[in-house]
From TrEMBL:
GO process annotations (BP): methylation; regulation of DNA-templated transcription
Residue ranges of every copy of the PRMT5 arginine-N-methyltransferase domain listed in the record: 398-591
Name this protein carries in UniProt: Protein arginine N-methyltransferase
Signal peptide range in chain numbering: none
Keyword Transmembrane helix: no
GO molecular function terms listed in the Swiss-Prot or TrEMBL record: protein-arginine N-methyltransferase activity
Regions that span the bilayer: none
PROSITE patterns assigned: SAM_MT_PRMT
The keyword Transferase appears for this protein: yes
Record-annotated site: Critical for specifying symmetric addition of methyl groups: 427
Organism (species): Hyaloscypha bicolor E
Entry's family note: Belongs to the class I-like SAM-binding methyltransferase superfamily.
UniProtKB keywords: Methyltransferase, S-adenosyl-L-methionine, Transferase
Amino acid sequence: MASPQQPVIDPPSPVDDFTPTFYVGHHESKRPLPVTDFVLRQAQDVGYDMLTSPITSPHFHSRVLTLISEYLSELSLFEASDDAVTKSTPPAPIIPPLTPVDTPLTPGDTVSQLIAYSSPWIDLCSSDPLISNISRQVLNIEIAYTSFCGVGNIIIPGPRSYSSGSTNNDGLIQYARAIQEALTIGSYIQMAIHIPMYGNDEVKDMTGDLRPFARDHHSAAKGKSIKEIDLFETWDAWNLIRSVCKYNSRLSVALGLPRQLPIESLQSRWFAEPLRLLSFTPSTFLKNKGGHPVLSKSHQSLITRYMRLKLPPWLLLCDVGPIPGLDDPLHRTSTADGFPSPTAVADASRSVSPTPAEAVDLLSKESQKPRPKHKDPAAHLIYMRYLQRSQPLRTAIEKFGSGYQDYLQAPLQPLTDNLESVTYEVFEKDPVKYDWYERAIAQALSDWTEQRKPTSSPSGAVVIAVAGSGRGPLVTRALRASEMTGVPVELWAVEKNPNAYVLLQRHNEEDWGGVVKVVKSDMRAWKGPLRSTTGPIGQAITTTSPAPASPYGRVDILISELLGSFADNELSPECLDGVQHVLAPQFGISIPSSYTAHLTPVLAPRLHADISHRAITDNTATETPYVVMLHAIDYLATSVPDHPRIQEAWEFVHPLPATTLAVAEARRGGGVSGGGGGSMSGGDGANEHNTRSVRLKFVCKDRGVVNGLAGYFEAVLYDGGEAGKVELSTRPDTIDAKSKDMISWFPIFFPLKTPLYFPDDSELEVSIWRQTDDRKVWYEWLVEAFVMVGPDKRMRLGMSEMGSSRKVGCLM
């Protein structure tokens, strides 16, 4: 049986030719007018979906500046007086409540189309207690009033400094704490932190900026020097902010895209984060031969990738000019409908992002050129609508996975639960898996006859048993393989689910011509094909030669689809051990013949936030290995010699040597070989041969956070020697080569209760165990972070808590 990757809820029914919808907004740093109904209608007529609005007005800004000036004057007089020695410093001033003239916002129907933008002139990171205090007051006032007005989304400018590793007091912790407080004040508002993809935004002189009021401003500015850009610095700052805010689901990123995109690893890092917005300034765009703004090929690819997220980000055009038609309401403005003239959207002669030096040179040259009059005041919007219309159609995998991306599902209990028909139906939608099974069966049958192997059937037909037949897809494929190869078969279908058993009998009557022998039994209790009804009843399987012959025969080819997302997590080893007694001892074949489990550490903030939320009501949430279609994640490891990005953990091979099964049987129930022991308390050691453990080292070039382990598997259905292997794989780096477009299994995710941070050039050691107490099977896992401090010495930076799925283990 396939693993329970797909939930039994009805997924969305998307249209096959669906392309992502671009929600495009307009932002002006100095919006001249309040956003009235007329402004909104004009913006919508042009093609914008939303507008930003400042929360407070210049009048409020001037009030705050006056308050600071008066306090600083009072403070200087106090410090000059004789009282300064004996009395404490006057307390920081409190900003009075807002008045109507202090804000352009008001509750109403239009607020649903607005994104509030908090004041950029505050400095939450300031090392001056006065400025940081006033800045926090301003933010809290704005958040509270925005919440009152019913605005659903607010953008907060990012920290004024990102150098979290510097020795200067950069105030990132102050900023993070202020955001945490804001989330408490605006308890329903979605907050997006406006952060550049890398580097600092160009520092623009803002009238009334609070930063110069800081009393150590000049000394701090003097101490700063030009330094090399740290590409992951802004991500590092974001990680600190969201960690302080405990991965709050209402906190997200408004990501500023630069003219030159960074390395692929940083693009992938941001892809994994909760992106609410992508923002574009005029400097993000290139100019094509016609003078129209266009994006480089690499920008276009990034947008296509990011818009494939389960929740695609909105797009915000910043300072690209005023909304057309505001000055002349009677002027007829065309709508950006995605069908511009070809010259308006032709790619620039440069098809990729310029290098940093080239980007600076291009900006310099463009600033020196005489500015031609805009051919269309909505040129940037027109181009974005063109990109929307030009998005590639979704692949078959994307269509199938729609609605399942990053959706957490607890694995089924296949041995204790009887699946519903709809669950089987989902598994059967994967043609690739069953095509590969059919290939494997056909190859095995062909080899059987070519190698002249004896069969276990009196008629000379090859005896095939499908163990765990479900609704019968493998039975159908086995019959097809027999017909294709011309090799006669005797086919048995074994199924424990009484409801599926009814359907199998109907299939046998209506579809299979009555040639299949259907048996209702747990495969481990099945004694094999019944050959005689006159033999002794209940005879032991392990008979000696003088004893009467068993009425049960053997099976030549045993077929099963018991693999789970981590290969063995649905007890395929235990099930196949339990049914191996029916397999012909010398020539018997198991399909699959072997399978391996693989894993890698990943950043998965969305999954961590979801699991943390579940943990409020479910104390096993952080220790459950989840089946999930991983999407918004980042692979943290770098492939280096001997340490690839995804590594094999362990392997299971079938059939097992008879001696191994004999020892397990002797131990069962505290037998002579077991003594009631076993490595786990309460076990007798009968399943000890199916325990596994491994310790793997992963090399990480870039800093990051481990939220959990992504698990995959590979399986050899049949090894045909020179004819090649028939294999399945869910590993993202080998699936295309081994089983392209297979959708039956989603990966498994082993979560860490607390995220584990590590710096650049670190090593992660992953330890994982497959444990059993003979009643159930579970996993335990641990991650450690190290950094090299010498040629042969390294220091442990930290480690995760031990994860254990024992409470939710798979029952045997």
